[in-house]
Each structure stands twice: as C-alpha cells, then as structure tokens.
Known about the structure:
Elements: E1 10-14, H1 19-28, E2 34-39, E3 52-57, H2 65-70, E4 75-78, H3 95-108, E5 119-125, E6 136-137, H4 148-165, E7 170-176, E8 178-180, H5 192-201, E9 206-208, E10 215-216, E11 218-220, H6 221-233, H7 235-238, E12 242-244, E13 251-252, H8 253-268, E14 275-277, E15 293-294, H9 297-303, H10 311-323
Parallel strand pairs: 1-2, 1-4, 2-3, 4-5, 5-7, 6-15, 7-12, 8-11, 9-14
Antiparallel strand pairs: 10-13
Keywords: Membrane, Transmembrane, Transmembrane helix
Protein name: NAD-dependent epimerase/dehydratase domain-containing protein
Pfam family, one: Epimerase
Amino acid sequence: MSAPGDTLPLITVLGASGMVGSAITAVLARRRVRLRVVARRPVAPVPTGPAEIETRTADLSAPGALADVLHGSDVVIHLVAHDGGWRALDTDAESERINVGVLRETLDFWRGADGARPVVVFAGSTSQVGPVAKERIDGTEPDHPETRYDRQKQQAERLLKAATADGRVRGVSLRLPTVFGPAPIPPGDKGVLATMARRALTGEPLTLWHGSEVRRDFLFVDDVADAFAAAVEHADALAGGHWLLGTGRGVPLRGAFETVAKIVGECTGSPPVPVTDVPPPAHVVPGDNRSAAADPSRFRSLTGWSPRVSLRDGLERTVASLVRTAPRV
C-alpha cells in the first residue's frame, strides 16, 4: 500500500512508547525503511540511522485515529495494550476496547482493499495457553486461557488468523514470555525484575511469593526486538500462525531475585538486600504459582532467530539504566 513514487516500505509501529516498542523502533531505525512511530504518550528519541522516521502522537481509540496512522502501511507492528496492567482488567471496562478492539479496527481497515495484504505482527503472550501438564511449551498445545487478559489476547489472535485466512493481511502472532530490560521513559518497565531492581536500589528486601520452586522464562527486550524484525522479514513463512518466543529455560525466581540484589549491590557498593518469603497477596491467580518455559524452536527453524543476551547480562544492563534515575539509600 505504498504511495506512488515511494520506494521504501512503510513500517508502522503502534504502541511504540513502551519498553518493547522503543526497542523495536531502535532496531528498525537501522534499516532502509520508512518508519512511522505511533503512541499515545511521547516516545523516546529514536536513534538516527538509514530509516526515514515519522513520529505521531495519537489516541488509537479515538474515532478516525487508526485510519489516519495506518494509511499507506506495508507492515504494522501491533503492540497496543491496556495501560492499567493485566491484574486490573477484571474491573476495567476499557480493556476489551484496547486489547481486542484496536486490532479489530486495524484489520477492518484492509477489508476489501484489493491486492494490499500488509504484514501485521501482533504481540501475544505465552500465558494464553493456560494450565498445561508440562512446564516447557512449544506452541502446539491447545489454549485454555484463565485470565481476562489472556482471553482477550486469544480473541485478538483469532481475529488476526481469520483475517489472514480470508486474504486481508499476512498476520503473525508472536507470543512473549516474561520480558525485561531498560525502558527509555520513566517509570520504565513495570515487570517483576525491574520492580525488584528498583526496590533493591532503595534498600528494600526483595519479596518472593511462592518460594524457589517457581521458574520463569525471562527474555531480554533486545532479543524480543530482533524477533519482531525477523518476523517481518519472514512474514510469508510465518503468516497465519502463532509462534513462541523464549529461551526455552525456566529460571528459579529466587535465583533471579538474588542475582538482581547482587548486581545492585555491585553498582552501589552496598551489601545485597535480602530475598525474603512473604504470603501471597489476594490478587494472585493460578498461573502465578506455575513454572513456565517457552521453546522457540518452531520460530527459530523458520527465521534463524535465537536469544543472544543472557539473564545476567540483561540484568546488568537493566540495573545500570535504573541506577541513573532511581533513588538510593
């Protein structure tokens, strides 16, 4: 859908102000493309590079806003998500509108558009699978989502697959595990590892709900960004499916928290804060007490992508970023 005379593909990133969106934008800025960066909040400065960059501030739930930013796009990277956090969704009437409605309208934009078939890459979640009998999943398991957030992600993903089947778009869903890393705009990443790093920087103990038995698959944000870029390059092979991203290895939460405490201590010159067990709060859901790891082999076989940043290296980069802004004791 490039305009006449345009020689470079136009990639539109929806929801570009967050940690993942900023990392994806930085990767794409190094390519010879036209890059349209769209967010409701101001975005971090985009690194200079070969890309021709256009930045737009827009509320995508407002009438007409989507059509305006989608016009001419050859690729859409859809990162839009409800800002209130997934634990607030059960009482938030806007969650379906943002998490499903924006993608529905994005797909409807190309209904009846002859010959367009843009690439749409959607950010799903590995937690969509719900309870399974094994810790390590590979994307072939049937989905039984438990939370409203995961059910909405599943609903949006089904819309994308249907739009691919009827020839409107070439849709690719990338299901993300627990993503961590530095975020360019305060307050930054709200994920568990960044939260613990901020606590450690203020001298607070790091609290663990479920003890050392629980394991999580932690994927550094730069590896996520590279995966999205790979999905764009291999969209024809991936279209119509959902693909897991991850390291394939579950890391004990206790060990991850202890590593955070150690790195913060090294950065500040203070003893590492303790990691302590506390009773779980009332808002715990069943998935919080399950270990999880995502096997990305199917995605890797088609794209060549694999994670490159270790947990230790990623945490060092995350803590170093937070040290510049977080208060210290």
